[in-house]
């Protein structure tokens, strides 16, 4: 067995006291835990009568996160339909836009959670939602970085621009602070003024920094030249333009030139008289100590990393990133003891170790949503090919199956899981087959929806089983018509036979058919089982008889017996039905038909002889047979006379 | 599709209905109700699309529907109908029929009348699948094959037709004030005349031999003999209940169960259908000439042979566009109204220029500019 990466979390079962033995049963997403009766032979004490349900993934029960699941399901399905044969050049923009769609869904969800967390009066809910917001924030941060590094795979030059965007997006408290400063009476004297200017510069938002500086410059006419110089430096800082004609080498030369200029200004103490501008200048040359002095403004090591790259190595190549990342992290975190999981995940991303990212996320996060969707997207980008698991099929499928199984345990979200299973080529179908049969069916409408899922995927075994469940339920409630409809839909001959028997029994006891609207409209469904055919045909006989189309009725009745459609046990009823036809004034059964009827009767009586019915029933039976024989003989006589007469 | 506004609501929506607007005013509807299904706790909810006041403020920019109030509903909401401006009737998978009152001043909901086990088996629940009402009368149908008549102002049950159907009745609609039409799971339409005391249908119509279950039915708003149904195979059938016992025309509409069909209440040349396959279709039929239909009606009246054959009644001799022929000649146009999605569209309602629908993807779509 492999070693575990982290110690598993302990969940305390509230109802179980110390020293008690727990039993458990696995479910697809949950575990049922119960206290067992196991105890020392004469120890007394009652056993807890509770069964506890332990859920692995609490998030799917959050009403707001449900929106995330539903919206991302839509994006997921869209991603699966991107055609395989497109050249990869055309696919990349699509993948990037899908990745952005996922992120915008996360953001929308986050905003809503934030709103609720703020507006709620319940402190517990507020913390719970607050926690979810911070989890989503982390998820979005990681996803965005993965998008820049893996999916978009920006080359040197544009890489830094993307990373800057990434930092700006996730460190947006600057804007809030800036708004506060600008709305104050005299912004330049606000105590946060320089923080805002520095933060702008640290994020490379030089235009905004310049606009802020203008406000200070007007207040200090004496230092005008100094501010002007700073403004020139800021305005001249070159940024790479990936769409332009400029090559990376050209840019590099230009940037070095600017860097030297800034350095010169620092050397000849141009800003010595103004402490704030001096610091700004030091930041512009990328002075590490000055940067580290402003940890509170950077707040994270990856902000530090991006700022350092901006002012020291703007043409950083993707392959060099890990070196800078590692060193920045060490420099930034030296006071803190251990890096947190998020730090390690981001570092792994900078090291382009996709599998480590996914693995660490799986461990650190409490839901499968993120890893499943990210891995799926990365797999579509063909970034995960080389990796094989020693269990299951591959990483993508494994994670999708975990996520979908979790969804399937939810009373309502199970429908979403179906599409995820569909896109797991190796085990998806097996999972779906096992799960779909276990969906509780309260109404026929739900059953129809489940059936549609099965039928679309040719899961005939499950179709049969669901129809059988519904048929059994209908039968239990004495709804024979519904039960028959369900067994016809399942093409379940055995069950159709059983229900047909019930119909016939009902007829024998009551003398009338129930559910005529159904039996009269069986059509070709009648052929499903012999007994059902008989039921339909027998009803047809009654209809013909009712319509006084006697000869047709007689012919049908006889054929039911001679073609062996009617069960032997029902022959006596059929023969009794023939009695009124035999007693009609005109001849209905021909001589040949009467012979056949007689033959049927004899066959029946000879097989009945061995029966052990009570004598009373026997008497009735005997009388019936006598009556039949008499009627048959009389009819035969009449038929012979009539047929003879016609011939003459 | 650009006019469509989607809102995710964290519950699978089984029914959506616009609140009625008074017929005299030409107002667009602004409030709709939804019912959820398959949740641990199901709800009925009232939403506002806020047409009042805000329209001049932010033209072009449409607000999301806003939740006004919601109320716990026992069991899945299987059907939903407004009884009047304030009251709504729901039917439940538990067999219960409930009238809720929406208090618009306080934006709260209360139960005003409830029949807990209107539909039931001796020892089990029988889901109540459909309801139709014409205040104060309420007619419900269920999986138990019963038709039950209730009155909003009376506690008891007015009338029960036991064994009205041997299979499940999926939907019901009024034909006239005393006549209803039901569709069942073996492809039959049954007409019931309440003036008769017998518990047998006055007429049965069916698809020949196929036994395809029918899930929804709607009556043409002006011509009571024209009825549209949708079935399990996604086919749209238009029937003339006066003539023949088979559908007048059959059109391929969806690739899975059609859950609802609705004629546009004021412009019945337009029809809307939604389905398990995740699509919502807008059907538009146009008569051959550009003449308005009232003029065509006049022309037909002058044809003595036709009016002699047609049953008495003013507007009945008017040739209806839905009965005037087959779709193959291109007089019938269909448009998809939703962006592609895979999960079922369970319900739709259309009133004026507004359309609302709800899906298993837990989204409500509202379109305020339906081209009718």
From TrEMBL, chain A:
Broad class of where this protein is predominantly found: nucleus
Subcellular locations according to the entry: Nucleus, Nuclear pore complex
Keyword annotations of the record: Membrane, mRNA transport, Nuclear pore complex, Nucleus, Protein transport, Translocation, Transport
Highest taxon of source: Eukaryota
InterPro entries recorded: Nucleoporin_Nup85 (IPR011502)
Entry GO MF terms: structural constituent of nuclear pore
GO BP term (any one): positive regulation of DNA-templated transcription
Cellular compartments per GO CC: nuclear membrane; nuclear pore outer ring
Known role: Functions as a component of the nuclear pore complex (NPC).
Similarity comment: family membership: Belongs to the nucleoporin Nup85 family.
Subunit record text: Component of the nuclear pore complex (NPC).
Protein name (database record): Nuclear pore complex protein Nup85
Organism the protein comes from: Zoarces viviparus
Upper classification of the organism: Eukaryota, Metazoa, Chordata, Craniata, Vertebrata
TrEMBL record, chain B:
Entries under PROSITE patterns matching the protein: WD_REPEATS_1, WD_REPEATS_2
Pfam family, one: WD40
Keywords recorded for this protein, A-Z: Nucleus, Repeat, WD repeat
Ranges of the WD repeats in the UniProt entry: 207-249, 251-293
Subcellular location: Nucleus
Main location: nucleus
Domain of life assignment: Eukaryota
A GO cellular component annotation in the UniProt record: nuclear pore outer ring
Origin species: Zoarces viviparus
InterPro entries, per database record: WD40/YVTN_repeat-like_dom_sf, WD40_repeat_CS, WD40_repeat_dom_sf, WD40_rpt
Name under which the protein is recorded: Nucleoporin Nup43
Chain coiled-coil ranges: none
The keyword Nucleus is assigned to this record: yes
């Amino acid at each position: 067995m492999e070693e575990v990466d982290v110690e598993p979390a302990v969940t305390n079962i509230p109802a179980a006291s110390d020293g008690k033995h727990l039993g458990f049963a696995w479910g697809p997403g949950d575990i049922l835990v119960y206290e067992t009766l196991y105890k020392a032979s004469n120890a007394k004490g009652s056993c807890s009568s509770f069964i506890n349900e332990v859920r692995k993934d609490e998030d799917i029960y959050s009403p707001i996160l449900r929106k995330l699941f539903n919206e991302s399901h839509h994006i997921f399905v869209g991603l699966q339909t991107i055609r395989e044969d497109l050249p990869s050049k055309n696919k990349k923009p699509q993948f990037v836009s899908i990745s952005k769609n996922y992120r915008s869904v996360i953001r929308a969800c986050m905003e809503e959670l934030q709103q609720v967390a703020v507006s709620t009066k319940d402190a517990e809910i507020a913390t719970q939602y607050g926690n979810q917001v911070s989890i989503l924030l982390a998820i979005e941060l990681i996803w965005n970085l993965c998008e820049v590094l893996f999916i978009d795979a920006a080359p040197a030059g544009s890489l830094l621009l993307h990373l800057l965007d990434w930092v700006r997006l996730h460190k947006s408290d600057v804007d809030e602070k800036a708004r506060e400063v600008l709305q104050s009476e005299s912004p330049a004297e606000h105590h946060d003024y320089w923080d805002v200017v520095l933060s702008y510069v640290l994020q490379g938002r030089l235009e905004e920094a310049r606009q802020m500086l203008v406000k200070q410059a007007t207040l200090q006419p004496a230092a005008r030249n100094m501010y002007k110089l700073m403004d020139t430096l800021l305005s001249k800082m070159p940024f790479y333009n990936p769409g332009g004609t400029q090559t990376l080498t050209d840019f590099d030369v230009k940037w070095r030139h600017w860097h030297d200029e800034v350095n010169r200004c620092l050397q000849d103490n141009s800003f010595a008289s103004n402490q704030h501008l001096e610091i700004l200048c030091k930041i512009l040359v990328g002075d590490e100590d000055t940067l580290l002095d402003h940890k509170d403004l950077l707040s994270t090591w990856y902000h530090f990393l991006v700022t350092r790259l901006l002012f020291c190595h703007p043409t950083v190549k993707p392959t060099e990133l890990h070196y800078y990342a590692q060193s920045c992290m060490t420099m930034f975190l030296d006071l803190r003891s251990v890096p947190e999981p998020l730090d390690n995940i981001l570092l792994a991303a900078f090291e382009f170790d996709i599998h480590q990212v996914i693995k660490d996320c799986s461990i650190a996060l409490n839901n499968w949503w993120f890893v499943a969707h990210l891995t799926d997207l990365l797999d579509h980008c063909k970034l995960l090919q080389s990796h094989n698991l020693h269990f299951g099929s591959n990483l993508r499928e494994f994670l999708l199956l975990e996520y979908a199984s979790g969804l399937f345990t939810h009373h309502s979200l199970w429908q979403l899981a179906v599409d995820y299973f569909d896109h797991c080529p190796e085990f998806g179908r097996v999972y779906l087959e096992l799960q779909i049969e276990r969906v509780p069916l309260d109404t026929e409408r739900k059953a129809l929806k489940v059936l549609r899922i099965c039928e679309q995927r040719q899961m005939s075994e499950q179709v049969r089983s669901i129809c059988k469940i519904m048929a059994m339920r209908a039968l239990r409630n004495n709804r024979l018509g519904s039960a028959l409809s369900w067994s016809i839909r399942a093409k379940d001959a055995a069950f159709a036979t059983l229900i047909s028997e019930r119909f016939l029994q009902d007829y024998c006891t009551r003398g009338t058919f129930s559910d005529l609207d159904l039996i009269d409209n069986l059509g070709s469904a009648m052929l499903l089982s012999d007994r059902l055919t008989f039921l339909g045909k027998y009803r047809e006989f009654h209809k013909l008889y009712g319509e006084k189309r006697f000869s047709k009725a007689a012919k049908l009745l006889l054929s039911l017996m001679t073609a062996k459609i009617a069960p032997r046990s029902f022959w006596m009823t059929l023969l009794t039905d023939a009695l009124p036809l035999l007693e009609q004034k005109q001849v209905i059964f021909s001589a040949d038909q009467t012979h056949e009827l007689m033959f049927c009767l004899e066959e029946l009586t000879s097989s009945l002889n061995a029966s052990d019915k009570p004598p009373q029933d026997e008497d009735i039976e005997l009388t019936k047979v006598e009556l039949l024989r008499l009627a048959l003989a009389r009819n035969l006589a009449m038929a012979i006379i009539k047929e003879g007469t016609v011939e003459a | 599709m650009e006019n469509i506004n989607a809102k995710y609501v964290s519950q699978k929506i089984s029914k959506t209905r616009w609140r009625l607007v008074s017929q005299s005013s030409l107002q667009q509807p602004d409030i709709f109700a939804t019912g959820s299904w398959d949740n641990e706790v199901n709800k009925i909810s009232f939403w506002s699309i806020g047409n009042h006041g805000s329209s001049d403020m932010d033209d072009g920019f449409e607000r999301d529907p806003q939740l006004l109030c919601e109320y716990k509903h026992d069991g899945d909401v299987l059907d939903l109908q407004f009884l009047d401006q304030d009251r709504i009737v729901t039917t439940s998978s538990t067999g219960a029929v409930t009238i809720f009152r929406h208090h618009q001043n306080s934006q709260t909901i209360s139960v005003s009348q409830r029949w807990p086990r209107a539909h039931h088996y001796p020892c089990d629940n029988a889901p109540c699948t459909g309801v139709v009402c014409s205040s104060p009368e309420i007619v419900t149908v269920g999986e138990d094959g019963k038709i039950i008549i209730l009155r909003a102002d009376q506690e008891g049950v007015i009338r029960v037709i036991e064994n009205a159907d041997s299979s499940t009745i999926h939907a019901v609609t009024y034909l006239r004030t005393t006549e209803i039409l039901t569709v069942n799971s073996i492809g039959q339409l049954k007409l019931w005349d309440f003036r008769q005391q017998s518990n047998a249908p006055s007429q049965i119509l069916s698809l020949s031999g196929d036994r395809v279950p029918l899930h929804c039915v709607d009556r043409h708003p002006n011509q009571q003999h024209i009825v549209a149904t949708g079935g399990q195979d996604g086919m749209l059938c238009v029937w003339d209940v006066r003539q023949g016992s088979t559908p007048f025309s059959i059109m391929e509409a969806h690739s899975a169960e059609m859950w609802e069909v609705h004629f546009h209440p004021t412009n019945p040349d337009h029809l809307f259908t939604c389905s398990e396959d995740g699509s919502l279709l807008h059907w538009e039929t146009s008569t051959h000439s550009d003449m308005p239909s009232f003029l065509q009606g006049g022309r037909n009246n002058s044809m003595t042979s036709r009016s002699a054959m047609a049953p008495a009644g003013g507007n009945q001799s008017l040739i209806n566009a839905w009965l005037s022929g087959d779709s193959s000649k291109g007089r019938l146009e269909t448009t998809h109204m939703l962006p592609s999605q895979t999960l079922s569209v369970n319900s739709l309602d259309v009133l004026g220029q507004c359309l609302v629908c709800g899906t298993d993807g837990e989204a409500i779509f509202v379109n305020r500019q339906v081209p009718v």
